[in-house]
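Reagents: none. Just compute today. Fc receptor-like protein 5 isoform X2.
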Amino acid sequence: MVPVFMPLWAILLVLGPVPGQSVSRQFRDTVTLSCHKPGFLLYQIKWYHGGKLLSHNTNTFQVNESGNFKCQADNLLPSKSVHLEFSNAQLILQAPFEVFERDSVVLKCQEKKRTSRSNITFYRNGQHLPHQGTEYHIQNAGLQHNGDYRCNNRYASSNKVKIQVQELFPRPVLLARPSQPTDGSPVNLTCDTQLSPQKSNVQLKFCFLKDNLISRQVCSQDPEYHIPAIRKEDSTSYRCKAGTSNIWKTSRPFQIPVQIPVSQPTLTLRTPRTQAVVGDMIELHCEAPRGSPPILYQFYHENIILGRHTAPSGGGASFNLSLTAEHSGNYLCEATNGQEAQRSVTITLNVIVPVSHPGLTLRMPRTQAVVGDTVELHCEVLTGSPPIQYQFYHENVNLGNSSALSGGGASFNLFLTEEHSGNYFCEASNVAGAQQSEAVSIKVIVPVSRPVLTLRAPKAQVVVGDVVELLCEALSGSPPILYQFYYENITLGNSSAPFGGGAFFNFSVTREHSGNYSCEANNRLWAQQSDKVTLFVTGLTGDRSGSVAAGLTGVLLSMVVLAAGALLFHCWLSRKAGRMPASDPTRRPSDSEPQEPTYSNVSGWVELQPVYSNVNSLGGDVVYSEVRRCTKERPYAVASVPLVPENKGSPVIYTEVKVACTSASKPNCQPPQ
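Predicted 3D structure written out:
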């Protein structure tokens, strides 16, 4: 702690809304702080050191330690904070915490150890200041005295002190209430300024001037001046002055415009067509027939301000608006020249929204459209003012129309036939125009009808070894159609008709192929089965034996021998008589091949004669003789190419003949029992 060299140093803390902080550096070990508010008698005083509440509660307070100090009284705002520093430096420059214009300021340079040889020098912003002694005096402080000050002696340099000269009060501003009075109305003028809180004990005087002439004989301490009734001719320049005995400040000139109130304005909507459409540019024009300029016009939509425009010389004002759907509603305008505002009559604007690009939706009971289904065509726009007319098209042919009186979409129901495949679109329109949707394609699937199964064989009686063709065909149905063939519900195979029509399936007949056949047609939407068709394969099974077969075999062999003898005799007679050449030129080479014997009818036989041929379709040890009845038209039998009998239901008799088994022909063969 620094010893005390002089009486107690007093520091005044002033209560009020003063920002910032003051700094004081001292050699002394005790400083007296005083809490003061001009014009107030303080009671409940609180002291704070570094934010901590102290127990002391009088208006003066002695401190002997460094730190930040402030006070607060009653319900007033806290004082400005003061920072105290007890220094061990050789030199300390002390200055007032705050300096105001026209103040007298004393800067003191104190030495810790003063000697007779000390020579004190003062500096401002690094420049030497002329002076005598340890104090530097400033008279009538002004802005030119702002800067950083310090002092030196031969041995040391002091701390820096910043001097910032503050205004005692700012330049006054002349206010008029009302600012734009009407003719004959009263007006109050106020010379508005404010003393610094640290100088609140200073008394200011005020003077009011009109056209630079003092409008009062004597200035007073009243900052207001009352005009009972202002006239149009009083629209001129006014000023005010505020000051003390040694400082005066004058306000800027203020023009008081005396107004004639505006009349009710008229709002006009100017549109490019009879009905306003989204995207149109419209003009809102507002005009008051009477009123002192300048006139401020404001435009409103549903009581929300759109914009404003000032007519400085009177007349009307306009506001342009690019229309959207949200601009439908009520419009009005307001005119004012600083007096009572006047509003126009409300005008209603209905903005037509053109229909947007419609969307066409197909609502079907299943994924694919099928003949007989009812399909709903739904057309809808996202935006558009009602009423909206919807039209539905199939391949540019109008199907029908529907109207949406309150907006939204519309539908059209269609009972599908095969002819309804194709492209569909819809059109939406209102008074602002029409829009078409994108085309949507529908492929109407025709379910397959019940197919018909046809068996195609080379003859009426199907025998083992014949090639049979199964034809399955659905008379109607959308391709591709998959056909499947069944024998006794067992799948034989399948075939596809990619472009419609029927399908074939061929197979070589065996003994096991007798039975029921059917087919199925499927076009992925529907499957249908045909009626069953029964196939009888003619032929004897390989396990028959017995006396009946042996007897029948003997009879057949006897008949073959007799027929051969008769044929040889007939050929000899014919050749001898010259009625038949030795060889038949029409005979095909294959006919002369000695594969199987050929038998023809002899003269005198009945009209219907059997024809015999051997059959060995199984490739085994059993030979079948086929007997057919054939009709001969000529009276005399002639040896000729064997006729292939047509399938006319002639009876056929098969006889099983077993080949004799010998060890030479077939080593593993066993003779019949």
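Helices lie at 547-577, 589-592.
Action item: order primers for follow-up constructs.
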